[in-house]
Design brief:
1019 residues; mainly alpha; Arc Repressor Mutant, subunit A; Rossmann fold; five-stranded parallel β-sheet; four-stranded mixed β-sheet; 47 helices; 14 strands; 63% helix
């Protein structure tokens, strides 16, 4: 039911500044989940019905259940905006709408203002008062690409509207310069790099006779332009300064530093831990329990920002040192994108660097390239095993404390690694501890799954930290300033330790009326910094994670002495501190708290943010980065800086790195983000990037949730053809063929391969050779049009050079020789192809080659020769999290063992085949089942052989795999002869004769099977 209660004041919803819902002067509690709050902001701001599907794409586009997440968010929001039976969130099966009747929305007033020039001064003043900050401040959600793009666009529109209102008010209030000055200063705050706004302030100050303030305003502008843009004020500004009574530009003034708090003449003293009796008692017991291998597997500290989670983690870290333990500390960051295992990398660096050059360094080289070892072929479980082995090695010398802060921002791969280690190292002298914000934990399904799984497994102790009581708050405040009114601080801070400390600092610094919110207190403290310190503060906040002085020096362009002076100033005032990660190779500093970082970032105007992020992106791009480890950060900063070409290119590099590290979900997310960035580019730049990003998704998902990619690839291929981009068109068809192959759609794969070959010839010689070889490989894999595959590979070989060692050429030749029955040379080619795939870290390609080598030896009746290939295949396949590789490797290994007479192999085959069926790879299943049938037939197990062959026939028929169909029918005909059922045997042979119009369309192996069956049936 729509509407509002009669006689009541309208509900107020603030979208400008931090989102707030207010009734009668009291703010209603919003859900802690950022995505739930973003949903409310979006519905209120747009003011129209939205498809549920669209809202899911906007905020929950991922592998989990988006509709369930949307329902959960709506359930949390309803009691916030609805009252007395009046439902403001109107929903049906398909749509969601916010009913705004009798609701006071600030943005609605701004939009209703109409033409600024035609509006009354009173209306403009009322509108200006509505701007409490940027649109939906703090709800950027960089990971939700579509929402972030909408939010930035709305924010820029509102900022432009705000600037127009302020300029109009300055003009209207020309006869009241004091009132005009208020709006002029707000205009400067809106865009600090706009000289015209500074000029208005200077002229108003001069007109009021406040010449010294006008000159100070000029000086502030001069320093800002010099530190941020490397330029000087314009000629117009210089003329205005001279009119104020100066004959020449002033020399640079000494930097104005904030007055040090009376309690912190040097570096701030560590904050004592007060209260938390229960938590401290538990922490005091953990070191000895960890030493004995009896510690709880995961200690999870939950609580709101500023409540003291990190302080308890520091206490635990101190306890580790007291028992001669090793502390590994890592932290996740909200702005850190495209860097899988980021928190783990930071935690492991300190202990891994001394391992450089050792065998263990080779295991960790994929995560830590700076170890100097050549990274082996990558796989997810291999990485997990290496980390587990390293932690286990460390625990031999004493208990190990693995601590991860802000895990609500962990990537999916890091969350999976945490779950693996907690289970793998159970009973070892290792303690895992993590801290998280409960509301934002709900926004991270990957971490939430781990927490719930460990809770079910009774491997988790969760401690939720509440506020301090009045006595504890008083004790905390008195450590900073004994004379302060602790009762007032407790009342205002409501027991939040960080809020209480910030209020105590403000009062002890002489402020009589400090801000009444934590964010306001932090903003006031940070606003005092000027000059190079302020520049360093801005860049540090924009980096978004722990940072090093070298990077800051490069992005700010400040001389080393000036940079270190600024950092020391920030450290002295408790804004930044030495980074927590041990012996970190990248991070020297971090903010004292993420809320401080957020406050510093909010002080940067939107235009200046673009400049800062763009400068960071360009600096990172120029840095050596052979492994692509910086690409995710480059993509993040380039997008926020408005350089979408660089952002999309960086997404390609970052997604490819994630794929190498088997972080498939991160690959998908980065690829989708890159496609969003590429949308605004011209076709000749957009199309090649889009194809590569779509291809990365195909390779990452490998048959899972890839159907929508088909239409995208077809659309891009058509656009590329119309634009004359033959190489891009060829790549699109190549990925289409791979997509169809993974889905078992061999007819579709064949059609795409034909288009791939045709388009591939249109490029330059080098590019054409690559695409022709890839197209030939597709035809060979499909066993469709083998003659075309042979012609294409010959053409590609001529272009590459006959002696070139090219993966696709060797792989394709091996496949063709296997098909033709030249098994000896097929083994040679496929073995060399597997080696090249391993060196290039191409995991699926390596698996396919190794699998075929094992199959060839089994088909030749050489299980002893097959077993080493099976083991190599299993070494790679067992580490792959998705696809048919793992169960196929297990099936072949068990089959070789059975053929060799090893005990227990029969049960292993049954279990492996069940997993292979679940992988839904019917071509591989048909191959495995036919091999099982042959081994069973040789062992005299006719009933089992018949069951295997019958199922193989169904699987091969489903995907039109001709060779395996022929082999299955041949086996069934032979088995019918064994059972003395000649009629059935002849029916199978008649079916074979009807299908095999062209014997060359099936492999030599299949032809041999048919001939053997014919001979046995005829005999």
């Amino acid at each position: 039911m729509r509407g509002t209660p009669g006689g009541q004041k309208p509900l107020k919803i603030r979208l400008l500044g931090e989102l707030a819902v207010v009734r009668g002067g009291e703010a209603r509690g919003l859900p802690a989940s950022k995505k739930a709050r973003a949903l409310l902001g979006y519905l209120v701001a747009t003011g129209r019905p939205h498809l549920r599907e669209r809202l899911c794409e906007l905020l929950w586009d991922g592998p989990d259940d988006p509709r369930a997440s949307l329902r959960w968010a709506l359930a949390k929001l309803r009691p916030v905006v609805s009252e007395h039976g009046y439902e403001r969130l109107v929903t049906d099966r398909d749509h969601v709408e916010f009913a705004a009747a009798a609701v006071d929305v600030d943005v609605a007033e701004i939009r209703a203002l109409g033409d600024v020039a035609a509006s009354t001064t009173e209306a403009l003043q009322s509108a200006a008062a509505r701007f409490a900050g940027p649109f939906l401040e703090g709800l950027d959600l960089h990971g939700c690409v579509h929402f972030h793009a909408w939010c930035v666009a709305e924010r820029e529109q509102m900022q432009s509207r705000h600037a127009a209102i302020l300029r109009a008010l300055v003009d209207r209030l020309a006869d009241r310069p004091e009132a005009a000055l208020v709006h002029a200063r707000a205009l400067v705050a809106l865009d600090p790099l706009a000289e015209s706004s500074h000029l208005i302030v200077m002229r108003l100050l001069s007109g009021l006779g406040r010449t010294q303030e006008a000159l100070a305003a000029y000086e502030g502008l001069r320093r800002l332009l010099e530190s941020e843009l490397g330029t000087r004020p314009s000629a117009e500004v210089e003329r205005a300064r001279m009119a104020f009574g100066r004959s020449a530009a002033r020399d640079a003034q000494p930097e104005q530093r904030p007055r040090a708090d009376s309690t912190t003449p040097g570096r701030p003293s560590p904050v004592p831990l007060v209260g938390r009796t229960r938590e401290r008692a538990l922490i005091s017991e953990l070191p000895e329990k960890a030493r004995a291998g009896k510690a709880v597997e995961l200690l999870l500290l939950m609580g709101d920002p500023g409540v003291g989670k990190s302080r308890l983690m520091e206490e635990l870290r101190g306890r580790a040192a007291a028992v001669s333990g090793t502390a590994l500390f890592g932290r996740a960051f909200e702005a850190e994108l495209g860097r899988p295992y980021g928190a783990w990398i930071d935690a492991l660096r300190g202990v891994a660097l001394p391992l450089a050059g050792t065998e263990r360094s080779a295991d960790l080289a994929s995560l830590l390239p700076e170890l100097g070892a050549a990274a082996p072929a990558q796989n997810r479980a291999g990485l997990f095993d290496a980390v587990a082995a390293t932690v286990r090695d460390l625990s031999a010398g004493g208990p190990v404390f693995v601590m991860l802060d802000d895990v609500q921002w962990l990537d999916e791969a890091s969350a999976a690694l945490l779950h693996f280690l907690v289970r793998e190292l159970a009973g070892a002298p290792v303690l895992f501890a993590a801290a998280a914000r409960p509301g934002e934990l709900d926004d991270n399904p990957a971490v939430l799954r781990v927490v719930r799984a460990l809770e079910r497994e009774r491997r988790l102790i969760s401690l939720t930290l509440g506020p301090l009581d009045e006595k504890e708050t008083t004790e905390l405040v008195r450590t900073l300033a004994p004379s302060l009114d602790a009762r007032r601080i407790f009342a205002d801070s409501e027991g939040n330790p960080l809020f209480a400390l910030e209020m105590a600092r403000a009062l002890s610094a002489g402020e009589t009326n400090p801000a009444d919110t934590l964010s306001g207190l932090l903003a006031d403290r940070l606003a005092r910094f000027e000059g190079s310190t302020r520049a360093v503060l801005s860049f540090s906040a924009a980096i978004g994670r722990s940072f090093d002085a070298d990077l800051l020096g490069r992005v700010t362009g400040l001389p080393a002495a000036e940079l270190m002076s600024a950092l020391e100033n920030l450290e002295r005032h408790g804004v930044v501190r030495a980074a927590q990660s041990i012996a970190s190779a990248r991070a020297d500093f971090d903010f004292a708290h993420d809320l401080v970082r957020g406050a510093a970032y909010r002080q940067i105007s939107e235009p200046r943010r673009r400049f800062v992020h763009g400068q960071i992106a360009r600096t990172l791009t120029a840095a050596p980065d052979p492994d692509g480890a910086l690409a995710g950060e480059i993509a993040h900063h380039a997008a926020l800086g408005g350089d979408f070409n660089l952002a999309a290119k960086a997404c390609v590099t970052a997604a490819a790195r994630c794929l190498r590290l088997f972080a498939s979900e991160e690959t998908r997310e980065l690829a989708q983000r890159g496609m969003q960035h590429a949308q605004s580019l011209p076709p000749r730049e957009r199309l090649p990037l889009t194809v590569e990003l779509l291809g990365l998704q195909v390779e990452a998902l490998r048959g899972r949730r890839v159907r929508p990619l088909e239409s995208e690839l077809m659309r891009v291929a058509a656009e590329a053809r119309d634009a004359g981009l033959s190489e891009t068109e060829a790549r699109a068809h190549r990925f289409l063929s791979l997509l169809h192959y993974h889905l078992g759609d061999y007819a579709g794969a064949e059609e795409s391969s034909l288009l791939h070959a045709e388009a591939g010839r249109g490029g330059a010689a080098a590019e054409a050779a690559v695409e022709l070889a890839a197209s030939a490989r597709c035809f060979a894999l499909l066993e469709r049009d083998v003659a075309r595959a042979e012609a294409l590979i010959e053409e590609a070989s001529e272009l590459f050079g006959r002696d070139a060692q090219v993966l696709d050429i060797l792989w394709t030749r091996g496949l063709l020789r296997q098909f033709s029955g030249d098994t000896q040379n097929a083994v040679s080619d496929l073995a060399r192809a597997a080696s090249l795939a391993s060196k290039a870290e191409l995991n699926w390609e390596q698996c396919d080659c190794l699998m075929r080598l094992a199959v060839i030896e089994m088909e030749r009746g050489r299980p002893a020769d097959a077993l080493p290939w099976c083991e190599r295949f299993a070494t790679v396949a067992d580490k792959m999290t998705e696809g048919y590789e793992r169960p196929m490797a297990a099936t072949l290994t068990a089959l070789a063992r059975k053929a060799l007479g090893r005990g227990g192999a029969g049960a292993e085959i049954v279990a492996a085949l069940e997993n292979l069926r679940a992988a839904d790879a019917k071509a591989m299943l048909a191959t495995a089942l036919n091999l099982c049938a042959e081994v069973a037939l040789e062992a005299g197990e006719a009933a089992a052989a018949e069951a295997f062959a019958g199922e193989a026939l169904k699987a091969a028929t489903a995907v039109e795999q001709r060779s395996q169909k022929a082999i299955a029918r041949s086996l069934l005909a032979r088995l019918a002869v064994v059972a003395a059922d000649r009629a059935a045997a002849e029916q199978y042979m008649d079916a074979l004769a009807g299908e095999l119009i062209d014997r060359q369309a099936i492999s030599a192996r299949a032809r041999e099977a048919v001939d053997r069956a014919r001979a046995e049936v005829s005999g």
